[in-house]
Design goal:
heterodimer, B: Rossmann fold, 17 helices, elongated
Protein backbone atom coordinates (compact mmCIF):
# COMPACT_ATOMS: atom_id res chain seq x y z
CA UNK A 1 0.00 0.00 0.00
CA UNK A 2 2.77 2.42 0.92
CA UNK A 3 4.47 1.57 -2.35
CA UNK A 4 1.26 2.25 -4.28
CA UNK A 5 0.93 5.65 -2.63
CA UNK A 6 4.55 6.42 -3.32
CA UNK A 7 4.09 5.42 -6.95
CA UNK A 8 1.01 7.56 -7.29
CA UNK A 9 2.65 10.53 -5.59
CA UNK A 10 5.62 10.42 -7.92
CA UNK A 11 3.46 10.25 -11.05
CA UNK A 12 1.14 12.99 -9.74
CA UNK A 13 3.94 15.37 -8.92
CA UNK A 14 5.61 14.80 -12.28
CA UNK A 15 2.43 15.12 -14.35
CA UNK A 16 1.33 18.08 -12.21
CA UNK A 17 4.57 19.84 -13.08
CA UNK A 18 4.09 18.78 -16.69
CA UNK A 19 0.66 20.46 -16.78
CA UNK A 20 2.12 23.64 -15.31
CA UNK A 21 4.80 23.72 -18.00
CA UNK A 22 3.09 21.97 -20.93
CA UNK A 23 -0.17 23.92 -21.09
CA UNK A 24 1.46 27.36 -21.31
CA UNK A 25 3.92 26.03 -23.88
CA UNK A 26 1.04 24.55 -25.89
CA UNK A 27 -0.85 27.84 -25.76
CA UNK A 28 2.25 29.87 -26.60
CA UNK A 29 3.15 27.88 -29.70
CA UNK A 30 -0.30 28.48 -31.25
CA UNK A 31 1.05 31.96 -31.99
CA UNK A 32 3.92 30.77 -34.16
CA UNK A 33 3.82 27.91 -36.62
CA UNK A 34 7.59 27.39 -36.76
CA UNK A 35 7.95 27.36 -32.98
CA UNK A 36 5.09 24.87 -32.87
CA UNK A 37 6.76 22.51 -35.34
CA UNK A 38 10.04 22.70 -33.45
CA UNK A 39 8.57 22.16 -29.98
CA UNK A 40 6.38 19.26 -31.09
CA UNK A 41 9.33 17.69 -32.89
CA UNK A 42 11.56 17.90 -29.81
CA UNK A 43 8.80 16.52 -27.59
CA UNK A 44 8.31 13.63 -30.01
CA UNK A 45 12.01 12.84 -29.99
CA UNK A 46 12.07 12.79 -26.20
CA UNK A 47 9.21 10.34 -26.03
CA UNK A 48 11.07 7.89 -28.28
CA UNK A 49 14.00 7.62 -25.86
CA UNK A 50 13.60 4.36 -23.91
CA UNK A 51 13.08 5.07 -20.23
CA UNK A 52 16.05 2.95 -19.15
CA UNK A 53 18.29 4.94 -21.48
CA UNK A 54 16.89 8.21 -20.19
CA UNK A 55 17.58 7.20 -16.60
CA UNK A 56 21.08 6.19 -17.60
CA UNK A 57 21.66 9.53 -19.29
CA UNK A 58 20.51 11.42 -16.23
CA UNK A 59 22.70 9.62 -13.70
CA UNK A 60 25.98 11.40 -14.61
CA UNK A 61 24.24 14.73 -15.15
CA UNK A 62 22.31 14.75 -11.88
CA UNK A 63 25.23 13.27 -9.96
CA UNK A 64 26.76 16.74 -10.15
CA UNK A 65 24.18 17.85 -7.58
CA UNK A 66 24.24 14.50 -5.82
CA UNK A 67 20.86 13.34 -7.17
CA UNK A 68 21.98 10.79 -9.77
CA UNK A 69 19.53 8.23 -8.50
CA UNK A 70 16.30 8.41 -6.50
CA UNK A 71 13.14 10.51 -6.87
CA UNK A 72 14.52 13.42 -8.86
CA UNK A 73 15.55 11.61 -12.08
CA UNK A 74 12.31 9.62 -12.00
CA UNK A 75 10.23 12.77 -11.76
CA UNK A 76 12.24 14.51 -14.46
CA UNK A 77 11.82 11.55 -16.81
CA UNK A 78 8.04 11.46 -16.34
CA UNK A 79 7.89 15.23 -16.65
CA UNK A 80 9.65 15.00 -20.02
CA UNK A 81 7.53 12.11 -21.27
CA UNK A 82 4.34 13.96 -20.33
CA UNK A 83 5.22 16.99 -22.38
CA UNK A 84 4.24 15.56 -25.75
CA UNK A 85 0.64 14.51 -25.00
CA UNK A 86 -0.04 17.65 -22.98
CA UNK A 87 1.59 20.16 -25.33
CA UNK A 88 0.19 18.51 -28.43
CA UNK A 89 -3.35 18.29 -27.07
CA UNK A 90 -3.28 21.87 -25.83
CA UNK A 91 -1.94 23.10 -29.15
CA UNK A 92 -4.46 21.11 -31.19
CA UNK A 93 -7.40 22.06 -28.98
CA UNK A 94 -6.67 25.78 -29.10
CA UNK A 95 -6.01 25.67 -32.83
CA UNK A 96 -9.26 23.82 -33.44
CA UNK A 97 -11.49 26.35 -31.73
CA UNK A 98 -14.14 27.23 -34.31
CA UNK A 99 -12.85 30.21 -36.34
CA UNK A 100 -16.33 31.75 -36.13
CA UNK A 101 -16.04 31.84 -32.33
CA UNK A 102 -12.63 33.41 -32.59
CA UNK A 103 -13.96 36.02 -34.99
CA UNK A 104 -16.95 36.70 -32.75
CA UNK A 105 -14.62 37.10 -29.77
CA UNK A 106 -12.41 39.52 -31.71
CA UNK A 107 -15.33 41.44 -33.13
CA UNK A 108 -16.82 41.85 -29.67
CA UNK A 109 -13.61 43.50 -28.52
CA UNK A 110 -11.84 40.88 -26.43
CA UNK A 111 -8.10 41.28 -26.03
CA UNK A 112 -6.03 38.19 -26.96
CA UNK A 113 -5.67 37.32 -23.26
CA UNK A 114 -9.40 37.65 -22.66
CA UNK A 115 -10.05 35.44 -25.67
CA UNK A 116 -7.80 32.76 -24.19
CA UNK A 117 -9.28 33.01 -20.73
CA UNK A 118 -12.97 33.34 -21.56
CA UNK A 119 -13.26 31.29 -24.72
CA UNK A 120 -10.32 29.31 -26.01
CA UNK A 121 -9.05 27.64 -22.83
CA UNK A 122 -12.51 26.72 -21.49
CA UNK A 123 -13.28 25.11 -24.83
CA UNK A 124 -9.91 23.35 -24.93
CA UNK A 125 -10.09 21.91 -21.41
CA UNK A 126 -11.65 18.55 -22.36
CA UNK A 127 -8.96 17.88 -24.95
CA UNK A 128 -6.17 19.04 -22.64
CA UNK A 129 -7.50 16.73 -19.93
CA UNK A 130 -7.47 13.86 -22.41
CA UNK A 131 -3.77 14.57 -22.91
CA UNK A 132 -3.22 14.53 -19.16
CA UNK A 133 -4.93 11.15 -18.98
CA UNK A 134 -2.66 9.74 -21.65
CA UNK A 135 0.36 11.11 -19.80
CA UNK A 136 -0.68 9.65 -16.46
CA UNK A 137 -1.51 6.19 -17.75
CA UNK A 138 1.65 5.98 -19.81
CA UNK A 139 3.85 7.16 -16.98
CA UNK A 140 2.48 4.83 -14.36
CA UNK A 141 4.30 2.21 -16.41
CA UNK A 142 7.44 4.30 -16.80
CA UNK A 143 7.54 4.90 -13.05
CA UNK A 144 7.62 1.15 -12.42
CA UNK A 145 10.95 1.02 -14.23
CA UNK A 146 12.26 3.91 -12.14
CA UNK A 147 12.61 1.42 -9.31
CA UNK A 148 15.92 0.44 -10.89
CA UNK A 149 17.33 3.88 -10.15
CA UNK A 150 16.04 3.77 -6.61
CA UNK A 151 12.84 5.71 -6.93
CA UNK A 152 10.75 3.07 -5.15
CA UNK A 153 7.11 2.61 -6.06
CA UNK A 154 5.35 -0.53 -7.23
CA UNK A 155 8.27 -1.47 -9.45
CA UNK A 156 9.94 -2.68 -6.26
CA UNK A 157 7.82 -5.86 -6.35
CA UNK A 158 8.64 -6.50 -9.96
CA UNK A 159 12.34 -5.93 -9.42
CA UNK A 160 12.37 -8.23 -6.40
CA UNK A 161 10.29 -10.84 -8.22
CA UNK A 162 12.83 -10.93 -11.03
CA UNK A 163 15.97 -10.99 -8.89
CA UNK A 164 14.57 -13.61 -6.50
CA UNK A 165 12.86 -15.55 -9.31
CA UNK A 166 9.66 -15.22 -7.31
CA UNK A 167 6.68 -15.20 -9.69
CA UNK A 168 4.23 -14.23 -6.93
CA UNK A 169 5.95 -10.91 -6.23
CA UNK A 170 6.38 -10.32 -9.93
CA UNK A 171 2.68 -10.88 -10.59
CA UNK A 172 1.60 -8.77 -7.61
CA UNK A 173 3.73 -5.91 -8.91
CA UNK A 174 2.54 -6.23 -12.48
CA UNK A 175 -1.15 -6.52 -11.54
CA UNK A 176 -0.89 -3.63 -9.11
CA UNK A 177 0.67 -1.37 -11.75
CA UNK A 178 -1.98 -2.31 -14.30
CA UNK A 179 -4.84 -1.80 -11.86
CA UNK A 180 -3.44 1.53 -10.81
CA UNK A 181 -3.29 2.62 -14.44
CA UNK A 182 -6.88 1.57 -15.11
CA UNK A 183 -8.21 3.20 -11.95
CA UNK A 184 -6.28 6.40 -12.62
CA UNK A 185 -7.68 6.47 -16.15
CA UNK A 186 -11.27 6.23 -14.95
CA UNK A 187 -10.72 8.73 -12.17
CA UNK A 188 -9.31 11.21 -14.65
CA UNK A 189 -12.14 10.57 -17.08
CA UNK A 190 -14.50 11.63 -14.30
CA UNK A 191 -12.40 14.74 -13.66
CA UNK A 192 -12.38 15.47 -17.39
CA UNK A 193 -16.18 15.38 -17.53
CA UNK A 194 -16.32 17.55 -14.44
CA UNK A 195 -14.15 20.15 -16.14
CA UNK A 196 -16.02 20.13 -19.45
CA UNK A 197 -18.06 23.34 -19.73
CA UNK A 198 -21.72 22.48 -19.23
CA UNK A 199 -22.86 23.85 -22.54
CA UNK A 200 -20.60 21.48 -24.45
CA UNK A 201 -21.77 18.24 -22.90
CA UNK A 202 -24.63 17.60 -25.25
CA UNK A 203 -22.26 17.77 -28.17
CA UNK A 204 -20.23 14.96 -26.59
CA UNK B 1 -23.15 57.84 -39.00
CA UNK B 2 -20.55 55.74 -40.74
CA UNK B 3 -18.35 57.30 -43.39
CA UNK B 4 -15.81 55.42 -45.45
CA UNK B 5 -13.11 57.41 -47.16
CA UNK B 6 -11.19 55.67 -49.94
CA UNK B 7 -11.10 52.43 -48.01
CA UNK B 8 -8.87 49.97 -49.85
CA UNK B 9 -7.75 46.41 -49.22
CA UNK B 10 -5.06 44.70 -51.25
CA UNK B 11 -4.30 41.06 -50.48
CA UNK B 12 -0.94 39.58 -51.37
CA UNK B 13 -1.41 36.06 -52.62
CA UNK B 14 0.99 33.63 -54.28
CA UNK B 15 -0.70 34.46 -57.61
CA UNK B 16 -0.09 38.18 -57.24
CA UNK B 17 -2.01 40.93 -55.54
CA UNK B 18 -5.77 41.03 -55.36
CA UNK B 19 -7.63 44.26 -54.79
CA UNK B 20 -10.56 43.13 -52.66
CA UNK B 21 -11.84 46.64 -52.03
CA UNK B 22 -10.88 49.51 -54.28
CA UNK B 23 -11.19 53.04 -52.90
CA UNK B 24 -14.59 52.60 -51.35
CA UNK B 25 -16.10 55.93 -50.28
CA UNK B 26 -19.62 56.13 -48.94
CA UNK B 27 -21.64 57.49 -46.07
CA UNK B 28 -24.42 55.87 -44.08
CA UNK B 29 -26.52 58.51 -42.31
CA UNK B 30 -27.33 57.97 -38.63
CA UNK B 31 -30.24 55.64 -38.00
CA UNK B 32 -30.24 54.05 -41.44
CA UNK B 33 -29.65 50.51 -42.60
CA UNK B 34 -27.27 50.22 -45.53
CA UNK B 35 -27.16 46.84 -47.22
CA UNK B 36 -23.90 45.89 -48.94
CA UNK B 37 -24.95 43.66 -51.78
CA UNK B 38 -23.18 41.72 -54.47
CA UNK B 39 -22.02 38.30 -55.65
CA UNK B 40 -19.39 36.43 -53.63
CA UNK B 41 -15.92 37.85 -53.92
CA UNK B 42 -17.19 41.34 -54.72
CA UNK B 43 -15.61 42.97 -51.66
CA UNK B 44 -18.73 43.62 -49.60
CA UNK B 45 -17.63 41.50 -46.64
CA UNK B 46 -14.07 42.80 -46.81
CA UNK B 47 -15.40 46.35 -46.71
CA UNK B 48 -17.59 45.56 -43.71
CA UNK B 49 -14.78 43.87 -41.81
CA UNK B 50 -12.40 46.74 -42.36
CA UNK B 51 -14.70 48.93 -40.31
CA UNK B 52 -14.02 47.01 -37.09
CA UNK B 53 -10.57 45.93 -38.28
CA UNK B 54 -11.26 42.20 -38.37
CA UNK B 55 -9.51 42.77 -41.69
CA UNK B 56 -6.94 45.57 -41.49
CA UNK B 57 -7.34 48.15 -44.26
CA UNK B 58 -4.46 48.73 -46.66
CA UNK B 59 -5.35 52.40 -46.90
CA UNK B 60 -8.25 54.77 -46.39
CA UNK B 61 -10.13 55.90 -43.33
CA UNK B 62 -13.30 55.09 -41.43
CA UNK B 63 -15.28 57.76 -39.59
CA UNK B 64 -17.89 56.88 -37.01
CA UNK B 65 -20.15 59.72 -35.88
CA UNK B 66 -17.70 62.12 -37.47
CA UNK B 67 -14.72 60.79 -35.57
CA UNK B 68 -11.74 59.33 -37.45
CA UNK B 69 -11.26 55.81 -36.06
CA UNK B 70 -7.74 55.38 -37.43
CA UNK B 71 -6.13 56.46 -34.17
CA UNK B 72 -8.56 54.60 -31.92
CA UNK B 73 -7.50 51.52 -29.99
CA UNK B 74 -8.78 48.40 -31.80
CA UNK B 75 -10.33 46.86 -28.69
CA UNK B 76 -12.14 50.08 -27.72
CA UNK B 77 -13.32 50.53 -31.27
CA UNK B 78 -14.80 47.04 -31.42
CA UNK B 79 -16.53 47.34 -28.06
CA UNK B 80 -18.42 50.31 -29.44
CA UNK B 81 -19.56 48.51 -32.58
CA UNK B 82 -22.14 45.75 -32.47
CA UNK B 83 -21.04 42.78 -34.56
CA UNK B 84 -23.23 39.96 -35.81
CA UNK B 85 -21.89 37.17 -38.02
CA UNK B 86 -23.62 34.53 -40.09
CA UNK B 87 -22.29 31.66 -37.98
CA UNK B 88 -23.71 33.48 -34.94
CA UNK B 89 -20.66 32.59 -32.84
CA UNK B 90 -22.32 32.20 -29.45
CA UNK B 91 -19.79 30.90 -26.95
CA UNK B 92 -20.84 27.32 -26.17
CA UNK B 93 -19.20 27.37 -22.74
CA UNK B 94 -21.34 30.27 -21.56
CA UNK B 95 -25.03 30.50 -20.72
CA UNK B 96 -27.27 32.75 -22.77
CA UNK B 97 -27.07 35.33 -19.99
CA UNK B 98 -23.27 35.20 -20.00
CA UNK B 99 -23.19 35.43 -23.78
CA UNK B 100 -25.43 38.48 -23.85
CA UNK B 101 -23.49 40.22 -21.10
CA UNK B 102 -20.02 39.59 -22.52
CA UNK B 103 -19.48 43.12 -23.79
CA UNK B 104 -21.00 44.84 -20.74
CA UNK B 105 -18.74 42.71 -18.54
CA UNK B 106 -15.72 43.64 -20.64
CA UNK B 107 -16.74 47.27 -20.23
CA UNK B 108 -16.85 46.79 -16.47
CA UNK B 109 -20.57 47.13 -15.80
CA UNK B 110 -21.91 46.15 -12.38
CA UNK B 111 -23.61 42.70 -12.26
CA UNK B 112 -27.08 44.12 -11.42
CA UNK B 113 -26.87 46.35 -14.45
CA UNK B 114 -25.80 43.75 -17.01
CA UNK B 115 -28.20 41.14 -15.64
CA UNK B 116 -31.10 43.56 -15.95
CA UNK B 117 -29.93 44.40 -19.45
CA UNK B 118 -29.85 40.72 -20.48
CA UNK B 119 -33.45 40.29 -19.30
CA UNK B 120 -34.59 43.41 -21.08
CA UNK B 121 -32.98 42.30 -24.34
CA UNK B 122 -34.45 38.79 -24.21
CA UNK B 123 -37.88 40.35 -23.66
CA UNK B 124 -37.28 42.50 -26.70
CA UNK B 125 -36.91 39.46 -28.98
CA UNK B 126 -39.77 37.62 -27.29
CA UNK B 127 -37.65 34.97 -25.59
CA UNK B 128 -38.79 34.39 -22.02
CA UNK B 129 -35.89 35.34 -19.70
CA UNK B 130 -36.98 32.86 -17.03
CA UNK B 131 -36.60 30.03 -19.54
CA UNK B 132 -33.58 31.13 -21.49
CA UNK B 133 -31.16 33.03 -19.24
CA UNK B 134 -29.57 29.91 -17.79
CA UNK B 135 -29.63 27.77 -20.92
CA UNK B 136 -26.66 27.03 -23.12
CA UNK B 137 -26.54 27.92 -26.82
CA UNK B 138 -26.73 24.31 -28.00
CA UNK B 139 -30.11 23.96 -26.29
CA UNK B 140 -31.59 26.63 -28.58
CA UNK B 141 -32.94 26.38 -32.12
CA UNK B 142 -31.10 28.15 -34.94
CA UNK B 143 -33.58 31.01 -35.00
CA UNK B 144 -33.39 31.48 -31.25
CA UNK B 145 -29.59 31.44 -31.38
CA UNK B 146 -29.60 34.09 -34.08
CA UNK B 147 -31.87 36.32 -31.99
CA UNK B 148 -29.45 35.96 -29.10
CA UNK B 149 -26.59 36.75 -31.48
CA UNK B 150 -28.30 40.00 -32.43
CA UNK B 151 -29.11 41.09 -28.89
CA UNK B 152 -25.58 40.23 -27.75
CA UNK B 153 -24.37 42.78 -30.28
CA UNK B 154 -26.89 45.29 -28.90
CA UNK B 155 -26.02 44.68 -25.24
CA UNK B 156 -23.84 47.71 -24.64
CA UNK B 157 -26.09 49.86 -26.84
CA UNK B 158 -23.49 50.69 -29.49
CA UNK B 159 -24.53 53.43 -31.93
CA UNK B 160 -23.28 51.40 -34.88
CA UNK B 161 -23.81 47.79 -35.89
CA UNK B 162 -22.11 45.61 -38.48
CA UNK B 163 -24.00 42.55 -39.63
CA UNK B 164 -22.41 39.96 -41.92
CA UNK B 165 -25.22 37.97 -43.54
CA UNK B 166 -26.86 37.73 -40.13
CA UNK B 167 -29.90 35.81 -41.30
CA UNK B 168 -28.17 33.75 -43.99
CA UNK B 169 -28.14 30.47 -42.09
CA UNK B 170 -31.81 30.50 -41.14
CA UNK B 171 -34.56 28.72 -43.04
CA UNK B 172 -36.69 30.98 -45.27
CA UNK B 173 -39.78 30.99 -43.06
CA UNK B 174 -37.96 31.90 -39.87
CA UNK B 175 -35.82 34.36 -41.79
CA UNK B 176 -38.90 36.41 -42.74
CA UNK B 177 -40.03 36.44 -39.11
CA UNK B 178 -36.64 37.48 -37.77
CA UNK B 179 -36.26 40.15 -40.45
CA UNK B 180 -39.62 41.63 -39.47
CA UNK B 181 -38.72 41.51 -35.79
CA UNK B 182 -35.43 43.16 -36.50
CA UNK B 183 -37.02 45.96 -38.51
CA UNK B 184 -39.46 46.56 -35.67
CA UNK B 185 -36.56 46.76 -33.20
CA UNK B 186 -34.64 49.06 -35.48
CA UNK B 187 -37.63 51.41 -35.72
CA UNK B 188 -37.21 51.99 -31.98
CA UNK B 189 -33.45 51.74 -31.64
CA UNK B 190 -32.36 53.77 -34.65
CA UNK B 191 -28.93 52.25 -34.96
CA UNK B 192 -26.68 53.00 -37.89
CA UNK B 193 -26.27 49.63 -39.54
CA UNK B 194 -24.10 48.14 -42.27
CA UNK B 195 -25.56 44.87 -43.37
CA UNK B 196 -23.97 42.41 -45.82
CA UNK B 197 -26.27 40.31 -47.94
CA UNK B 198 -26.20 38.47 -51.23
CA UNK B 199 -29.97 38.34 -51.47
CA UNK B 200 -31.61 41.15 -53.42
CA UNK B 201 -35.00 40.51 -51.80
CA UNK B 202 -33.49 40.81 -48.34
CA UNK B 203 -31.68 43.97 -49.38
CA UNK B 204 -34.86 45.57 -50.73
CA UNK B 205 -36.71 44.65 -47.58
CA UNK B 206 -34.11 45.67 -44.99
CA UNK B 207 -32.21 48.50 -46.59
CA UNK B 208 -32.81 52.23 -46.45
CA UNK B 209 -29.95 52.29 -48.93
CA UNK B 210 -28.31 49.59 -50.97
CA UNK B 211 -24.67 49.57 -52.01
CA UNK B 212 -23.93 47.20 -54.86
CA UNK B 213 -20.38 45.89 -55.16
CA UNK B 214 -18.62 44.23 -58.03
CA UNK B 215 -14.99 43.06 -58.12
CA UNK B 216 -13.95 45.33 -55.28
CA UNK B 217 -15.68 48.44 -56.57
CA UNK B 218 -18.79 50.21 -55.36
CA UNK B 219 -21.03 50.18 -58.44
CA UNK B 220 -24.11 51.96 -57.20
CA UNK B 221 -25.21 53.40 -53.89
CA UNK B 222 -28.83 54.48 -53.77
CA UNK B 223 -32.23 53.79 -52.27
CA UNK B 224 -33.75 50.38 -53.09
CA UNK B 225 -36.40 52.01 -55.27
CA UNK B 226 -33.77 53.94 -57.22
CA UNK B 227 -31.66 50.86 -57.74
CA UNK B 228 -34.63 48.86 -58.97
CA UNK B 229 -36.00 51.64 -61.14
CA UNK B 230 -32.70 52.95 -62.48
CA UNK B 231 -29.91 50.39 -62.29
CA UNK B 232 -26.67 52.21 -63.10
CA UNK B 233 -25.26 49.46 -65.30
CA UNK B 234 -26.16 46.26 -67.10
CA UNK B 235 -24.41 44.34 -64.36
CA UNK B 236 -26.73 45.79 -61.73
CA UNK B 237 -29.80 45.34 -63.90
CA UNK B 238 -28.84 41.69 -64.28
CA UNK B 239 -28.09 41.31 -60.61
CA UNK B 240 -31.35 42.76 -59.36
CA UNK B 241 -33.24 40.57 -61.80
CA UNK B 242 -35.55 41.02 -64.76
CA UNK B 243 -38.51 41.17 -62.38
CA UNK B 244 -37.09 44.22 -60.67
CA UNK B 245 -40.24 46.24 -61.28
CA UNK B 246 -42.24 43.61 -59.40
CA UNK B 247 -39.75 43.85 -56.52
CA UNK B 248 -40.52 47.55 -56.29
CA UNK B 249 -44.08 46.65 -55.35
CA UNK B 250 -43.03 45.92 -51.81
CA UNK B 251 -41.40 49.33 -51.45
CA UNK B 252 -44.60 51.27 -52.04
CA UNK B 253 -47.61 51.37 -49.70
CA UNK B 254 -51.23 51.57 -50.72
CA UNK B 255 -51.45 55.04 -49.18
CA UNK B 256 -48.93 56.35 -51.70
CA UNK B 257 -50.87 55.17 -54.72
CA UNK B 258 -54.53 55.31 -53.73
CA UNK B 259 -56.93 57.81 -55.18
CA UNK B 260 -59.07 60.12 -53.02
CA UNK B 261 -62.11 58.80 -51.19
CA UNK B 262 -64.24 57.33 -53.96
CA UNK B 263 -67.91 57.94 -54.32
CA UNK B 264 -69.71 55.31 -52.35
CA UNK B 265 -73.29 54.48 -51.57
CA UNK B 266 -74.97 53.84 -48.24
CA UNK B 267 -77.45 51.04 -47.51
CA UNK B 268 -80.31 53.55 -47.42
CA UNK B 269 -79.74 54.77 -50.99
CA UNK B 270 -81.73 53.17 -53.77
CA UNK B 271 -80.21 50.93 -56.41
CA UNK B 272 -81.25 53.35 -59.14
CA UNK B 273 -79.16 56.07 -57.46
CA UNK B 274 -76.23 53.68 -57.36
CA UNK B 275 -76.67 52.90 -61.04
CA UNK B 276 -76.76 56.61 -61.89
CA UNK B 277 -73.49 57.19 -60.06
CA UNK B 278 -71.81 54.24 -61.76
CA UNK B 279 -72.91 55.48 -65.16
CA UNK B 280 -71.70 58.96 -64.45
CA UNK B 281 -68.20 57.76 -63.47
CA UNK B 282 -68.21 54.87 -65.91
CA UNK B 283 -67.60 52.40 -63.07
CA UNK B 284 -68.65 48.79 -63.24
CA UNK B 285 -69.19 48.56 -59.52
CA UNK B 286 -69.34 50.81 -56.45
CA UNK B 287 -68.50 50.43 -52.78
CA UNK B 288 -71.23 50.17 -50.21
CA UNK B 289 -70.28 51.61 -46.83
CA UNK B 290 -72.17 51.88 -43.56
CA UNK B 291 -72.75 55.06 -41.52
CA UNK B 292 -69.26 54.77 -39.96
CA UNK B 293 -67.89 54.77 -43.50
CA UNK B 294 -66.70 51.18 -43.17
CA UNK B 295 -66.95 49.32 -46.48
CA UNK B 296 -69.32 46.38 -46.16
CA UNK B 297 -69.89 45.30 -49.75
CA UNK B 298 -70.15 46.30 -53.38
CA UNK B 299 -72.95 46.94 -55.80
CA UNK B 300 -72.27 45.86 -59.37
CA UNK B 301 -74.06 47.18 -62.44
CA UNK B 302 -75.66 43.76 -62.81
CA UNK B 303 -77.24 44.00 -59.40
CA UNK B 304 -78.37 47.55 -59.97
CA UNK B 305 -79.93 46.67 -63.36
CA UNK B 306 -81.70 43.55 -62.27
CA UNK B 307 -83.04 44.49 -58.84
CA UNK B 308 -85.27 47.14 -57.36
CA UNK B 309 -85.07 48.66 -53.90
CA UNK B 310 -82.33 49.79 -51.52
CA UNK B 311 -78.63 49.14 -51.79
CA UNK B 312 -78.65 47.61 -48.28
CA UNK B 313 -80.93 44.85 -49.52
CA UNK B 314 -79.00 43.70 -52.58
CA UNK B 315 -75.22 43.66 -52.48
CA UNK B 316 -72.23 41.38 -52.94
CA UNK B 317 -69.59 40.74 -50.33
CA UNK B 318 -66.32 42.67 -50.66
CA UNK B 319 -63.83 41.13 -53.06
CA UNK B 320 -61.03 42.34 -50.92
CA UNK B 321 -59.88 45.27 -48.91
CA UNK B 322 -56.51 47.00 -48.67
CA UNK B 323 -55.13 48.78 -45.64
CA UNK B 324 -53.25 52.03 -46.10
CA UNK B 325 -50.07 50.49 -44.69
CA UNK B 326 -50.12 47.40 -46.94
CA UNK B 327 -47.39 47.25 -49.52
CA UNK B 328 -48.38 46.99 -53.15
CA UNK B 329 -47.27 43.39 -53.37
CA UNK B 330 -49.96 42.44 -50.85
CA UNK B 331 -52.51 44.62 -52.61
CA UNK B 332 -51.78 43.22 -56.05
CA UNK B 333 -51.89 39.68 -54.71
CA UNK B 334 -55.38 40.41 -53.35
CA UNK B 335 -56.49 41.87 -56.65
CA UNK B 336 -55.28 38.82 -58.55
CA UNK B 337 -56.91 36.46 -56.08
CA UNK B 338 -60.25 38.29 -56.30
CA UNK B 339 -60.00 38.91 -60.07
CA UNK B 340 -60.68 42.56 -59.34
CA UNK B 341 -59.22 45.67 -60.92
CA UNK B 342 -59.68 47.86 -57.86
CA UNK B 343 -59.93 47.62 -54.08
CA UNK B 344 -61.24 49.99 -51.42
CA UNK B 345 -58.54 51.24 -49.06
CA UNK B 346 -59.22 51.67 -45.34
CA UNK B 347 -57.26 53.30 -42.52
CA UNK B 348 -56.22 51.63 -39.28
CA UNK B 349 -59.71 51.97 -37.81
CA UNK B 350 -61.34 50.38 -40.85
CA UNK B 351 -62.79 53.52 -42.44
CA UNK B 352 -62.80 54.05 -46.17
CA UNK B 353 -60.04 56.49 -47.12
CA UNK B 354 -59.58 55.88 -50.81
CA UNK B 355 -59.44 53.33 -53.57
CA UNK B 356 -56.63 51.70 -55.41
CA UNK B 357 -56.77 50.56 -59.02
CA UNK B 358 -54.50 48.46 -61.22
CA UNK B 359 -54.26 51.45 -63.50
CA UNK B 360 -53.10 53.61 -60.59
CA UNK B 361 -50.41 51.09 -59.67
CA UNK B 362 -49.01 50.73 -63.17
CA UNK B 363 -49.10 54.48 -63.54
CA UNK B 364 -47.17 55.00 -60.31
CA UNK B 365 -44.50 52.42 -61.17
CA UNK B 366 -44.22 53.68 -64.71
CA UNK B 367 -43.84 57.32 -63.64
CA UNK B 368 -40.22 56.96 -62.53
CA UNK B 369 -39.25 55.34 -65.84
CA UNK B 370 -40.99 58.06 -67.86
CA UNK B 371 -39.34 60.78 -65.74
CA UNK B 372 -35.94 59.34 -66.63
CA UNK B 373 -36.89 59.57 -70.28
Amino acid sequence: MALTLEHLMLVSIAVGLAIITGVPIGVAITQNQRAADLVLYVASVIITIPSIALFGLMIPILSVIGQGIGYLPAIIAVLLYSQLPIIRNTYTAINNVDPALREAARGIGMTPMQRLKMVEIPLAVPVIMAGVRTAVVMNIGVMAIATYIGAGGLGTYIQRGISQTDPRQLIIGAVAVSLLAIIADYALLWVQKKFTPKGMKVMG
Amino acid sequence: MIRLDNLTKIFDTPDGTITAADHISMEVPAGEICVLLGPSGCGKTTTLKMINRIIPATSGRVFIDGQDTTAMDTVDLRRNIGYVIQQIGLFPNMTIEENISVVPRLLGWQPERYKARAKELLDMVALDPATFLKRYPNELSGGQQQRVGVIRALAADPPVMLMDEPFGAIDPINREVIQDEFLKMQAELNKTIMFVSHDIDEAVKMGDKIAIFRTGKLEQYASPDDILAHPASDFIAGFVGSDRTLKRLQLVTAAQVMGPVPTFVTPQQSLSEALAIMERFEHRSITLANERREPIGIITRDIAWNHQGLCGEHYEGLHGIARQSDDLRTVVAQMFTADSSWLPVVDASGRLVGDITQRGITHHLGATYRAKG
